[in-house]
Amino acid sequence: MAVGPRRWPLSVFTVHLVFIFAAAGYYHSVLIRFQLFGWSCTLLQNQNLPIALGTKPSWINGLIKALLQAAQANVIAVDWVHGATAAYPTAVGNIMQLGLEIFSFIHKLQAFGMAEASVHIIGVSLGAHVAGLVGHFCDGRLGRITGLDPAGPKFTRASREERLDPGDALFVEAIHTDSDNFGIRIPVGHIDFYINGGKDQPGCPRFISSGYSYLICDHMRAVHFYTSALEESCAMVAFPCFSYQDFLAGHCLDCLNTFQQFCPTIGLLNNGGVNMDKIPTEVKVYLATAVAPPYCVYHSLVEFRLQQKTTSDINIEITFLSGNTSYRTSIVIPKHETLGKGLMTHSVPLCKVEGVMLYRPKTWLRKKEELPISVQFCTASLPVDKRKMFCLSQILEKNIPLSHRLTVACD
């Protein structure tokens, strides 16, 4: 069945094909032993025509609506319920035939003048590897493939011909949210977004007593993040880094070396917003999110510099204040060091944060360590431009909070 903003077919010279593949039915039915959703779905998206497949999950209509509002596109939903709701090894075995069927369909559209480069395939879970197979059959000439938490079981050690990889389209991106369970751990695209480190998503249950939600929440967050990004409440921008821990520690502050200052963004921007003649492959990029929609947040560097070293760790709590909302984190300056830094996330731009409160909590230490310390506090939004950093110097005493107005200009 075709779903779109207008009747299809259009003039084939203006149509951009978007296929949308949803997650394999295995994750929606077999794991919980009954069919919670009756239609396993997969979406493929390009710039003017989308397709959807599978056991219809509760989120599918929202994703299609977001796609249609974000771009002039038609969405095609591909129902492969009988192939997707078998035992997982059987569903994996079925993706080759499904990929061939979709490849054949695309080939028929080409006969009417549709260009392969106009096709964008969005595949969720097992559907991401279906998208990869279609791209492989098309010799990598498809315009774009987006994998939403590509399935991990049976694919982590698979050959590139058997799974999604950067050679399957002119631009391949993947969003990882459950890399320690149902999702794949390895990078499979030109750009791989590891949201919140790619696992253990905020707001998802952490106890097995939560049942089905415990099993699937992290995996399906990729879909919800992508839908939220399409709705453009704010940009979901990511940054290249060696690890998520290094990212949170404030060691990866821009995209200069990897992407020539263009930071990847989740959504429909060409090449993820990276404007380069040749995009590198399998680049891991990181970002944090909020617990609930809209998931997008802003990232800011916060750092403290001591005038002189101390013989014990210095812990400083920092709070950003914006209206009735506050955002809080703690920074530790290690003993015998003068610098401590990290990231702060907040739901409003840094230029709309009205004030900052610094607090040095009281600890049970000898009198010498209770002395006030002289510290310089600085902050800047990512990607960091040191010329635009806000800094102030303070004398911090234990157990006495200090507040200051934060004045950062909006770009």
TrEMBL record:
Per its record, the protein catalyses:
1-(9Z-octadecenoyl)-sn-glycero-3-phospho-L-serine + H2O = sn-glycero-3-phospho-L-serine + (9Z)-octadecenoate + H(+); 1-hexadecanoyl-2-(5Z,8Z,11Z,14Z-eicosatetraenoyl)-sn-glycero-3-phospho-L-serine + H2O = 2-(5Z,8Z,11Z,14Z)-eicosatetraenoyl-sn-glycero-3-phospho-L-serine + hexadecanoate + H(+); 1,2-di-(9Z)-octadecenoyl-sn-glycero-3-phospho-L-serine + H2O = 2-(9Z-octadecenoyl)-sn-glycero-3-phospho-L-serine + (9Z)-octadecenoate + H(+)
**Cellular localisation:** Secreted
User: Can you give the residue ranges of the Lipase domain?
Assistant: 53-295
Q: Which domain of life is it from?
A: Eukaryota
A cellular component term (GO) from this record?
extracellular space
Membrane-spanning residues where? 7-27
Q: Which UniProt keywords apply?
A: Calcium, Disulfide bond, Glycoprotein, Hydrolase, Lipid degradation, Lipid metabolism, Membrane, Metal-binding, Secreted, Signal, Transmembrane, Transmembrane helix
- One Pfam family assigned to this protein is Lipase
Q: Which family does it belong to?
A: Belongs to the AB hydrolase superfamily. Lipase family.
Q: Any idea what this protein is called? A: Phospholipase A1 member A
Q: What is the lineage of its organism?
A: Eukaryota, Metazoa, Chordata, Craniata, Vertebrata
